[in-house]
What we know:
Blueprint: H1 2-15, H2 22-29, H3 32-55, H4 60-67, H5 71-98, H6 100-114, H7 116-122, H8 128-146, H9 157-167, H10 178-184, H11 188-197, H12 200-227, H13 229-242, E1 251-252, E2 255-256, H14 263-297, H15 305-310
Antiparallel strand pairs: 1-2
Helix pairs in contact: 1-2, 1-5, 2-14, 3-4, 3-12, 5-6, 5-11, 6-14, 7-13, 8-13, 9-10, 9-12, 12-13
Amino acid sequence: xxxxxxxxxLIGTVEIIPGVSGGTVALIVGVYETLIASAGSLARGVATxxxxxxxxxxxxxxxxxxxxxxxxxxxxxxxGMIIAVLVASAVLAPVIEAEPVASRAxxxxxxxxxxxxxxxxxxxxWRAREYGVAVLGAIAGFALTSLPHVDPLExxxxxxxxxxxxxxxxxxxxGVSGSFLLLAVGMYAPxxxxxxxxxxxxxxxxxxxxxxxxxxxxxxxxxLLEHRRRVMLATMTxxxxxxxxxxxxxxxxxxxxxxxxxxxxxxxxxxxxxTAVGGVLLVEAAVLRxxxxxxxxxxxxxxxxxxxxxx
Length: 311
């Protein structure tokens, strides 16, 4: 139990850092497939309980979904994640507010290095189709991050729920950061603030949106990754590239600005972010190699663990 709580703390800590994927860390510490399967069962159980309760059909079907959840793993991991998010948010929020240029530079480095994940997961040589959808994704990402952001102090609650629903989908693919999705649509800072201020209304709506996202979108994404894997991952790559606009270090409410006199430290921070994610990816690669070696030694097939997790 303590080990799983420690795993959850690692996942929760990186989950609030844009560019570092909690899914990647979950894969590294060995709980990725369990969490994804359990989260899907939990979301389906809640949805089934609501639907069958209204229709007077009882809760037998919902109970079957709840029984499929690995509670012995999910609960301690969840507690560890919650504690880590609370602690890390309290540390990060004042830093981001005091040093916006430096924060965006570091986050940009994290995202740039993370691009290797969906690029690598496409598998094999990219074809014209993959390049085409990646370009379209980059254009869409740039356009979305060019839209006026919501009020950073009081975002509408429907926007909060929608942002949470999409951000939770990042759990499906290791390497894709949910925090980065929040950052790209201007919801990262208000979400951190809500955690630090214990804004229960905001957090309740956020959790509700995340549950809806798990129930509706994650299954669709899993299907797309199984049946349209190359196109889906190429699209994700393009979206991440286009969304880097949100992390241009020098910008204000009027738009993007030219680099200032702090060019050298900004470049160093970008390189630091690239190095940090590169280190995480190297550890992940080592874990995957060991897992493949164990499967081969046992006489079993050795598929890509990421493919199994996403299927």
